[in-house]
User: Which sequence fits this backbone?
């Protein structure tokens, strides 16, 4: 069983003593070669990816990017849904001496093209999708083949910034640029968070597994779901699509322990529960609301005991 509290303390200490760059964060996150960094379901069952395997792919893709782009200190568009390849490409762009622009796939391509122009990005790398922008569009799969044949030259400076666009509901161009220090300061909140709420790194069968539900091109997804939990030594679990059936089966199959999501998801779950209870008989409704009140009171007095009481009293609700 891993001592996650110890991992968090050691990683934060190493980061505090570093220059707080993205390269420093990369070295700390990948410092355990045998750690299972990611999992996903496949036709053959479950695929696992260690830090060493992912890091090896980062090296190859970084070399391929440098061979194709032949420049450093440039923005390169990263176009793809959450995946192991997304993580590899994110670090590979930085290791090639360039900066990733994390492209929001929910925004119109015309909007994204303007952002690419503003950033001076003349290259986009797509993962398992075809896109046409007014620039060079490379395919991740092609870089994989090229990466077997080329080597990244020594002395290439590791990139230390990335760009993200806001959710863009108004479609007004707003670009946020972050450096390693920005993410380091987020990670430094870990100690206080864990002290106030130790259950945030609670385990199941000796493991912490985070469902990669929020898109990584969103600042909360990148900062909390990826950087924050990676520093705790957690494992990322990727889902093949966002249908309720696949999400639930992935959670059960991979024994996911944590899900970070925007409030909308939890409000939707609450509404569905209340709607289901309202359709039951009066006795069941009264039983539910009484159990809910007892649970809330117990958890406010003694959180751990209250949680166990809630698991028993509201078992049917939880299982459904």
Assistant:
């Amino acid at each position: 069983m891993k001592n996650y509290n110890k991992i968090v303390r050691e990683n934060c200490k190493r980061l505090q003593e570093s220059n707080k760059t993205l390269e420093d964060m990369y070295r700390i996150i990948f410092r355990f070669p045998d750690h299972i960094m990611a999992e996903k379901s496949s036709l053959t069952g479950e695929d696992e990816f260690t830090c060493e395997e992912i890091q090896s792919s980062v090296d190859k893709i970084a070399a391929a990017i440098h061979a194709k782009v032949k420049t450093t200190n440039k923005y390169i568009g990263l176009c793809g849904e959450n995946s192991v390849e997304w993580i590899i490409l994110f670090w590979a762009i930085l290791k090639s001496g360039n900066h990733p622009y994390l492209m929001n796939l929910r925004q119109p391509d015309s909007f994204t093209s303007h952002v690419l122009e503003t950033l001076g990005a003349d290259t986009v790398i797509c993962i398992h999708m075809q896109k046409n922008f007014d620039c060079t569009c490379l395919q991740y799969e092609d870089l994989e083949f090229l990466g077997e044949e080329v080597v990244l030259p020594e002395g290439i400076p590791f990139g230390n910034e990335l760009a993200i666009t806001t959710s863009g509901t108004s479609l007004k161009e707003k670009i946020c640029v972050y450096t390693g220090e920005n993410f380091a300061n987020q990670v430094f909140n870990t100690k206080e968070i864990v002290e106030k709420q130790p259950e945030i790194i609670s385990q199941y069968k000796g493991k912490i597994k985070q469902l990669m539900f929020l898109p990584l091109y969103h600042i909360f997804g990148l900062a909390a779901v990826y950087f924050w939990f990676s520093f705790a030594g957690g494992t990322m679990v990727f889902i093949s699509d966002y249908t309720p059936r696949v999400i639930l089966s992935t959670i059960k199959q991979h024994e996911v322990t944590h899900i970070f999501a925007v409030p909308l998801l939890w409000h939707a779950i609450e509404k569905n529960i209340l709607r289901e209870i309202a359709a039951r008989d009066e006795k069941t409704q009264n039983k539910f609301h009484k159990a809910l009140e007892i649970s809330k009171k117990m958890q406010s007095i003694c959180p751990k005991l209250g949680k166990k009481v809630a698991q028993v009293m509201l078992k049917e609700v939880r299982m459904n």
Q: What stands out?
A: The first helix runs from residue 4 to 16. The longest strand covers residues 36-42. The radius of gyration is 22 Å. The chain has 14 helices and eleven strands.
